[in-house]
Design brief:
The structure holds two protein chains of two kinds. By secondary structure, chain A is mainly α. Chain A contains 31 helices and seven strands. Chain A folds into two domains: about 500 residues, no CATH class; about 180 residues, no CATH class. Chain B has 16 helices and 30 strands. Classes of the chains: A mainly alpha, B alpha/beta. The interface between A and B is medium-sized, with 36 and 28 residues.
Chain lengths: ~775, ~625
Amino acid sequence: MSMALLSALQLCGIAAAYVIVVLLLPWLFLRRQLAGFACVPVRFMIYFLIGNFYIINLVYLLQLLHISCQVTLFFGTLAPFMVRAVRKHRGSFAEHLEKRLRRILLVLGGETGRKTLLLRMQKRMGRFFIAISRKCRQSVKQFGLEIVFVSGLIVLLVYMYGTNALHVYGYCASDMVLHNYWINEMGHNHIFADGVYPFGMHCLLYYLHGVFRIPVYVLLRLFYVVQTLMIHLMLLAFLRSVCKSKYAPYIGIMIYIVSDRFYQYTYIRYHATLPQELGMVFILPAAYFAMAFLQEKNLACQFAWGKRRSTEEAVSGESLNPGTGNAAELSEVSQVAETGGGSAAERWTVSGLYLALFAISVSLTFTVHFYDTLITGLFCLSIGVGFCFRVFRREYLKRIVAAGLLGLLLAILPMGAAFVTGTPLQASLNWGLNQWQSSSSGGMQARNESEKKEERPAVLETILDRMDYYVTNDMETAQVIVGSIGLLFVLGILWILFRKAEYGAILVSVSVYMAVMAVFQAAVELGIIQILEVSRYSVYLGYGIPVVWSLCVDGVLFLMFRKTAVLHFCSLAGFAAACVMTVKTGVRAPVCVSAYETNEAITCLENIIQENKGKTWTICSANDERQMIEEYDLAYHYESIKFLRDMRSIDEDTRITIPTSTIYFFIEKVPLLYRDYINMEKPEKSISQKGAEEPIPKEPGILPYIGDARWITMSHLYAWAQAFRELYPNEMEVYYESDQFVCYRVKQNEYSLYNFAIDYGYNGSGGTKKEQERGL
Amino acid sequence: MISRRNFFTMTILMSVIFFLCMFLNNMKDFSNDYKENAFATGTAEDYPSKVNIYVPDGQRKEQKTTDETAGEASISVSRNRVACIGEEGGMPAKVVREWASYTKRDFAGYQTLASCDHGETGKELLEMLVIDSAYVDWENETETDFLLGCIKGGTHLVFATLPDVSVIRDCRQVRELLGIREVVQEETAVSGIHLYEGFLLGGEMVYQAEEKEERKWQDMELTFPWYQLTSGTKVYMKGISKEEEADPEEDPVVIWRKSFGSAYVFAVNGGYMEGMEGLGILSAMSAEMYSYELYPVVNAQNLVLAGYPGLADENREVMEEYYERPMRHLYQETVWPNVTTALQDYEIGITCLMTPQYDYTDQNLPDPKLLSEYMKNFHEKSVEIGWSSSNVSGISMSDKLSEDQKFITEAVGGYEFASFYGADMDAEETMDALHAELLSSVRTVVRDYGEDIVSPVGYLSEHITEQRAVVDGPEYSFRRDFRARCVETALGYLNMCCDMKRLVYPRGKKDSWDKLAKEFVRNADVYGKAFQGFDRTTISQSDVRIRNFLTLDYSDSRKENQVHLQIDKVEGTVWFVFRNHGGRIRDVEGGSFVELEEGAYLIEADSKEVTILLEPSDERYYY
């Protein structure tokens, strides 16, 4: 089986598992309660948020109680369903259970015949499929072309980002090994192994590993495709929720995905499973639910749980066009609630629901990555500017601030619990805080210095310049982006003047947020406080651009055409025009980034895991495989540099033994370029005798695997392998070989281990026989 | 009341059942052609004889090439000349000569290294030099330089015996040559011996008595010098320290090799190379030297019940004392069911080399009807019947055989025996016995194991082959087990010979079948499980295979994943063992294959050109 096919199958498995957990299960649980609430994109956001929130906090709880395992995770997942079942059948639960068991006994006892049973099952299946097909027909009738567009978008995303997964098998970011280690430790109920850190992503991946038995390294290798898909679908859901026209959202997203006008900084990090990128998926829901709350004119308006029919009526015709006013729709729903009644426990106000979802979103951003919370905070402040006419009202302000703080508190709680019980902060948090402090002071200093200078470029020029450097490939696109942010602001003001205050406020909020982001992108040059590492802004800026463009088109079209059908048609035409324009201006090919492990190493690893039994093998390689195999608890790892250093000064008593029956040596013939950042550079320098003649790197940590040191390390290891193979030609075989990589396998008797310490001619002490022969 | 119709149906059914039971049994008896020996398929002259035996005709032209993977230069390695340094006629020399003959190699024997140096000048490089250390002057640097020169040249060295401990301790050059880091103790006693997997066929074996009753099995050499090895060595057999908590890594070594890149130096710490065991050890070492090894084997697994059955009612008093039943009942009701049950799951063929009676001086005569019963039973179960020289009455062999002739004529008329048990008779006596009319059709002779015997199979005379017992008696012991593994490795041959006479004329309680049966079952279990890939044969069948084995010549070559085998000088099927260090065979053209164990295959060559297709070693499931 080819690795590409294996990766594709693994990717399908991961996607299915994630969708089941964060979408299907919440849908099953809440579908009756949320039936007809708002529009489909909003419900998508709700299910997604609740699914993620529940799973992450379930894992946190079980981990902190040290009882996390497959069984507890499984039952923890089903707990809400079980609680509901118990509540539903309260008082008659035993009776209900007895009734079910009696039916089973009838079948087992033969009283219910096989044919009757089959007929019954057939009827049920028939009814189920009829219901499904009816639902499908309804959906096709209701959503029509959009289903095609969404499917096309998914295919396009899988092509653009999945291509990398099928061609590059290694980790695509340098810090993924660390995340791998942290998740492995969670397998031993040891959360925050390296200190307190936002573990949202780790909880999710650990959950998928724990319940579905997907290996952690496979998740880390491939989850980014699912993550990126969700980021874009969330972008679509957000735009569909705020835009007036149906197809305007696709314009921005399509350009964002395929246009070659964006610099790689805006999308390259999507090629790795990283917390910051996963956290991005919760920014727009937070913004949406904050805006939805601020659009509520009647805060006491109640939401009727599960009144599908009425709600459908309420949103009929415009069900996917919430821009017509969610408040209007939901006021109708509230009327239903008032007339239809319902238990007190089931009565929520619509605004309360929005606030809860806002709190959950904020909590999730903080749980996954602090940077996302900072961006969410900026967006929320921008929303405050956009909705300034309402946000300063006491009843709004106190609630939204409280919800935000509650969200933060929810996220901090597990981390705080760990911190209070003695777990220190993870080093990168301290580092981040220091960076922030230094950048703040540095920013102020830079500002003072720049003020002193007589000639300094205009702010706009600086912003454009930085935009050109970090976000786009050319100045024209940067100008278009800045221009469109300005246009969006103007459109927002116009719509406020045209008494469509909520819609206008949304446009203003987005434009202010993007303007602030653009300013922060140039923070260093402008001498203002730098809250993030500058290169990180470009990802968020890039993610905001489709929002700006789609809203610009939407705002303009809505100005011109007020009739819904015409508006939709024009947005479709606009989408077609945008597609043509994008193709004409240039389409980017899918990117394949440089991995931090060769494809061959991962291929070997898959084969080795498949071929060997537990605890019988060792891999001697650079450090990455160490965490990949540790999760299994069935293999050992020996670091190449330690291996070489152990035989550096060799004599008769030097012994290196590895106590497993099989040992694999991973050697890169063309050593990787181990950069600190995600890149697309390809290595070219081959190992050589010259490399082996260099002294073995003495630097600690990962340094012997970076740059020339890696080349020297691999050259030494290859020289050793050749010498050892000369001594053990039948015992050391080539397990896998390509032009870039070779894996040797040594099989040995565990009762009589080979001494791997040999004089290979370049040991380094200068005292070995071979070195003396070579005149060293 | 039964209706007529039902009555008729029942009658018909009962008739059919009665007919089937009676008729089938009668038919079976009728078709049992037991009076003709199915294994006597011709006289000895009809088969290849000693004149056809393979004689090395100097350096063969074919050369073996190592694995020629793409881009690698092919390295030619001569594997055809073996020399031995040691006393001519000494045990190591005899073993090496015999092994060279079995594996179709040239052999040269020298008394000293100097004579070897002189004798080999101008000749092709030796493939292997087997050294009896007693014949090397270790103080003479020229001799050690010569050995180092051999290694550099690519000749593998095998130290059949090691130099004295003091020599090893004092001479650094010798230690380096043997891969010894230090002498830990001049002599150490171990509790057992650990034979590692992958060296001899049959897998890993621990020769250590775990329980009290197993102590009697321990007959391995347990006292020898204790050496620690350097890097570049590989151990095949180790002693097991008496201290339970001792690190196995530190245990004293018995058989190992030191790699010099260009060649290996093998060392045997003890007397394991003396006797049949040396054949297997040399074959195993040879397999270690190359990327693959292909060598001919007999492929025959035999159990010989010598002196079984006896047909007279002898030694009644002793029999009553030991077994509470007469000999006839012991044989029929106890021994035979035990033997067949023990072997039913294993590929070991049975040959019964019978004698009508053991004591020709008593009045108890053999029962001809009993013979017929046995013969019918044996014929059904494909058990070969041969004749045995067993006799406790002290009459001459010619008298015994003439008595037996009379009996057999009376019992079954003429019957041709193809095999004969010569016990401990020497070659001359055996040949004399074979002149008797009764044994005129014999073409192979089974003889007892002897410690000075190095060839399990060979020719006794021009046309008669001899097959030596590899495992003597039903008793199990570690040394016997080790010997069996060695001979299986070298020849794919097992001859477990049990002299059943001792059951009737026991020398003590230890000879009673009640005790021996347990040992016999263990033997059957151990060898049956360890060598399942080899064929079950009777002695006559293995005779044919031995003749072909001794006659054949072959050459082989490898190109990438194909090994070509060319067989010469023999007609019919022959067998080879193919060892490939864990590699797997995909297919065999011109024959078939059976996996014996990981990296070891039995190749059945049905034609003269055989191609073995190997699975690429670097082919992986995920690619």
